[in-house]
Amino acid sequence: MLLVVDIILPVFGIVILGFGAAKAGWFDDAATRGLSLFVFNFAIPIMLFRSIATTELPAVIEWGFVVSYYLGVFGLYTLNLLVARYLYGRRGDEAAIFGFGSGMSNTVLLGLSVILQAYGDRAALPALMIIAINAPLIFPVVTVSIETARGSGAGLRAVVRASIIGLVRNPIILGLAGGIAFNLLAIPIPGPVDGVAQLLSGAALPCALFAMGASLSQFRLAGQIPQAMATVFLKLVAHPLIVFCLTRYVFGLDALWVGVATLMAAMPTGINVYLFAQRYQICIGSAATTILASTGFSMVTISIVLYTLDALGIR
User: Fold this and answer.
1) What is the pLDDT at residue 10?
2) Alpha-carbon distance 162 to 30, whole Å?
3) How many CB atoms lie under 10 A from the CB of residue 199?
4) For a designed S-S bond to 43, which of 72, 108, 204, 259 qualifies (C-beta 3.0 to 4.6 A apart)?
5) Rounded to whole angstroms, how far apart are CA atoms 233 and 262?
């Protein structure tokens, strides 16, 4: 239990500090936006670039790790989309937002912090594998689902093109791509450049957690709360359980890979769900409720997951 406390309290302590500072008016909206831009455009991309550029890549990719995680993601996406569509009577585009909420983890701001705190630098590679393909896999599916449900005249080709352009312009994707290129080509990072990257890397996670807490202070419980809470249950309970069973009992992966996949699946709903809801002006209140509630409850559920993994010898 002490291990769980040592991991959870530092991570969520910074989130709570950011939330409280914003609520008290000590950190206003402009400051939150500025810090978020620093985190997403500079600190996190550079940290990911340096991490993957200097990490020894495995000779064989653990495809069971990737398959396990994304079977959970898309299985729950489909399940919750169908539940929202046919049980709650939501329109197709609205149902896609609920499906998105049950499968999209907060991988960068919270997931990476918890995983590195729990397993150290050796967990960087499997965590980065998920982060690297998360947006390229999920965002086009959600975009196509919404656009198709709306019967927009844009066409599949235009939707795919817009998704690709968005990914190419994403600083986090660029940081990962640059790190992979440096690694595969065996290009060393020049000393002064590495020094700058190391300093920024040290600031990335604490700033990201503080910015996340400050951003959450702007959310309110709204929309269809019972349906949002059902999405929270799928995200925090069903997702890690599915991924754990697949990685441990179906693919028989090593303990580190099981732990990283399960912990990443246990993360609360990512803020991108709210951004999609805002972009399409659908289910904004429900998306905010899902993110706020899942983040709050995840303090308990992540602690349970960590304790269970440790009890099973998955360290």
Assistant:
1) 85
2) 29
3) 11
4) 204
5) 15
Nearest to 149 by CA among 289, 285, 283, 291: 283
Q: Which residue has the tokens 């912990």?
A: 263
Paired tokens of 279: 């972009």
Of residues 247, 285, 279, 274, the one with CA closest to residue 263: 247
CA distance 61 to 307: 28
CA angle 278, 235, 107 (to 5 degrees): 70
The whole-angstrom separation of Cα 100 and Cα 78 is: 9
Of the listed ranges 100-114, 163-177, 232-246, the least confidently predicted one is 163-177
Residue 291 clears pLDDT 80, i.e. is over it? yes
pLDDT tens readout for residues 5-36? 777 888 888 889 999 999 898 998 888 888 88
Residue with token string 């093109």: 161
d(C-alpha 85, C-alpha 100), whole Å: 13
Give residue 131's identity as a one-letter amino acid code. Answer: I
Gap between the Cα atoms of 51 and 74, Å rounded: 28
- The closest of 88, 84, 126 to 101, measured between CA atoms, is 84
The pLDDT value recorded for residue 235 is 96
Ramachandran area for residue 56 (φ above 0: left; ψ -120 to 50: alpha; else beta):
beta
